[in-house]
Specification:
- The complex is a heterodimer of chains A (about 250) and B (about 325).
- With about 250 residues, chain A is mainly alpha-helical.
- Chain A is built from 12 helices and no strands.
- The longest helix of chain A has about 40 residues.
- Chain B has 2 domains: about 180 residues, D-Maltodextrin-Binding Protein, domain 2 (3-Layer(aba) Sandwich), CATH 3.40.190.10; about 100 residues, D-Maltodextrin-Binding Protein, domain 2.
- In chain B, the strands form 3 sheets. Chain B has a 5-stranded mixed sheet, sandwiched between helices. A 3-stranded antiparallel sheet of chain B has the order 8-5-9. Chain B has a two-stranded parallel ribbon with strand order 6-7.
- In chain B, α6 links the parallel β6 and β7.
- The model of chain B has no long low-confidence stretch (mean pLDDT about 90).
- Classes of the chains: A mainly alpha (about 250), B alpha/beta (about 325).
- Chains A and B meet through α7 and α11 of A and α4, α5 and α7 of B.
Chain lengths: ~250, ~325
């Protein structure tokens, strides 16, 4: 029993939770002491208290699933484009060298500012949000897939070849598992960019899920509710981070 | 000893040089203008260019923002001292939640300067023809939002869809590409499209009869700053008034400066007073404050109506032109 309790209390998750509680307590203290104005940073307790009205009046749950769903679709599109394209750039050295610089440049470009153009192309619909989320999401996936495959140890490939392994099997059984950590780094970065872009556009055009709620609360000066809706965005991010972590461990068990 | 003498000499010299500078130093005011382009909101730029601030011994810096909440955050945090043209609902909303804000004067009463338009080939001729299509506004709590709410109510446009499209530029893009049926603008901005017959005006904010005479934009400041710098705030508002007078009465010099700043045709700039009438931009009164508080309540900008004491604290005319109504 004691060992189990020790295991729970000394687990990384618990350590993270305790850190979060301490940080929240410090923040609460600083706001109470008026070192930080409550009109700029909400008290953590007030933020928590503002959740029930947000669920009731702003359909926070619906907004959460809207943003979650759009991020999932945009990430799926980013994966469908990103992984094959990354593989192509790995296979074709000329294309790889030619496009890597462009992709890196596109990755750092503030694509979110092009939202009026996307509104014209796709209308004031969820499709605009999905496309604008998928584009920045697929770039790190392409780059990291190529880098991951380039980084596979030649020894592993040579060992496979000594067994006369067909190329397709070599890819699925040796190269892909070896490249998984790098590819998943790209996917995790990609999903974050996808989410940030979707929420930013929701905020800017006052349409969609959580970004719209953040905007509404911010413009009403409902500061605790603004922070609560931002926490909901973080929950979407945590969900994807946790989900892709599980898939990565499943694909490449320790 | 020689070193101490040299130090003393340097100190005395610095003091002699610095004293007149200190005596001449102007008081600093950091102004944030809530949005670009509205005609009457160019007053501080005219005051700056004509040297009215300098005459009041003020050193005024002007920066621009993007609407109510972002503007007021800078005032609340004290990173800016005063603002011009911020939406009155945003001020009421933030004030009700304890923000250290005070209204120094009215920037604009009535929303006759907000205009709704359609593409020239649209079948919509008036607000009543919109049917179940989109009547747009910029964002919640803004002037255009107030306008569409009142127009919908006054004209009983029950099936119309109220859609937030963002600022004037975003509105123009969306209406010209057929994303939404209508667009909004505050002339003289956007009159170029009208001149080229690309758009047609379907109505103005004057049709929002519930807002007639109501203050929609205000001069506001951090109340702590006003408390500590009342004399500065007074001189600032006096110079602002002169800037406003120049914007309306300065003739082509004023119009040219305004047109050049925003890349506008001078003929469009000259039409400014036609849309933003002079008698609607006086600092006082704060029109229909009770009605505005009611609207803030209805649109969930505030949770409870302001008390009489709160209303009294909210408005502080530090300076008004001679003969102005308080």
């Amino acid at each position: 029993m004691e060992t189990m309790l020790r295991k729970v209390f000394l687990s990384p998750m618990m350590a993270g939770f305790v850190g979060l509680v301490i940080l929240a307590a410090i923040l609460e203290f600083c706001v109470n002491q008026k070192w930080i104005p409550a009109l700029i940073v909400a008290r953590p307790t007030e933020t928590i208290e503002s959740f029930p009205p947000l669920f009731r009046e702003m359909d926070l749950l619906g907004a959460f699933f809207t943003t979650l769903g759009m991020t999932a679709v945009a990430t799926a599109i980013a994966l469908i484009i990103g992984i094959p394209f990354g593989y192509l750039l790995y296979r074709n050295h000329v294309l790889g060298v030619a496009y890597e610089g462009w992709l890196a440049a596109a990755f750092s470009a503030p694509l979110v500012l092009l939202y009026p153009l996307f509104l014209v192309l796709f209308g004031r619909t969820h499709l605009t949000l999905i496309v604008m989320g998928a584009i920045p999401g697929c770039i790190p996936i392409i780059i990291q897939t190529r880098q991951g495959l380039l980084g596979v140890s030649q020894t592993l490939i040579n060992v496979g070849r000594t067994f006369n392994t067909p190329e397709r099997v070599l890819f699925w059984k040796i190269m892909l598992p070896a490249a998984v950590p790098a590819v998943f780094t790209g996917i995790k970065v990609g999903v974050m960019y996808t989410l940030v872009n979707i929420v930013a556009i929701e905020y800017l055009v006052d349409f969609g899920g959580l970004g719209r709620v953040v905007s509404e609360m911010y413009f009403r000066f409902e500061i605790p509710s603004t922070y609560a809706s931002i926490l909901a965005v973080i929950a979407v991010s945590v969900f994807f981070f946790w989900g892709f972590g599980r898939i990565e461990r499943w694909l490449r068990p320790a | 000893m020689t070193r101490w003498k040299a130090f003393g000499f340097a100190l005395a010299t610095s003091a002699i040089v610095a004293l007149p500078i200190a005596a001449e130093a102007n008081d600093r005011v950091r102004l944030i203008v809530s949005t670009k382009m509205p005609f009457e909101m160019y007053a501080p730029n005219q005051a700056l260019a004509e040297g009215y601030f300098k005459e009041e011994k003020l050193d005024v810096s002007i920066i621009y923002s993007d609407g109510g909440a972002a503007t007021l955050q800078t005032i609340i945090t004290g990173s800016q001292d005063a603002t011009n043209g911020v939406g009155v609902l945003s001020v009421i909303s933030a004030f009700s939640k304890g923000a250290p804000l005070v209204i120094l004067g009215s920037t604009k009463r009535g929303i006759g300067d907000t205009v709704w338009y359609v593409k020239a080939d649209s079948a919509i001729k008036t607000f009543k023809d919109i049917g179940d299509k989109e009547l747009v506004f910029s964002r919640n709590g803004t002037t255009s939002h107030l306008g569409v709410l009142d127009i919908k109510k006054t004209l009983a446009l029950d099936s119309v869809k109220l859609v937030s499209v963002g600022g004037m530029a975003a509105s123009r893009t969306q209406v010209m590409t057929g994303q939404v049926a209508t667009g909004w603008m505050t002339p003289p901005a956007g009159l170029d499209l009208l001149r080229r017959n690309e758009i047609r005006i379907i109505g103005t904010g004057d049709e929002a009869s519930g807002l007639r005479g109501a203050t929609i934009r205000v001069y506001a400041a951090n109340s702590e700053w006003v408390k500590k710098n009342r004399d500065v705030a007074t001189r600032f508002m006096r110079a602002m008034w002169r800037g406003l007078e120049f914007q309306y009465k300065g003739g082509d010099r004023a119009f040219e400066r305004y047109a050049k700043e925003w890349g506008m045709d001078i003929n469009d700039a000259r039409r400014g007073p036609e849309f933003v009438k002079y008698d609607e931009v006086s600092f006082s009164p704060i029109g229909e404050l009770d009605r505005l508080v009611q609207i803030a309540l209805e649109t969930q900008q505030i949770r409870e109506p302001l008390t009489s004491e709160q209303k009294r604290q909210l408005v502080d005319f530090v300076w008004l032109p001679p003969g102005a109504q308080r």
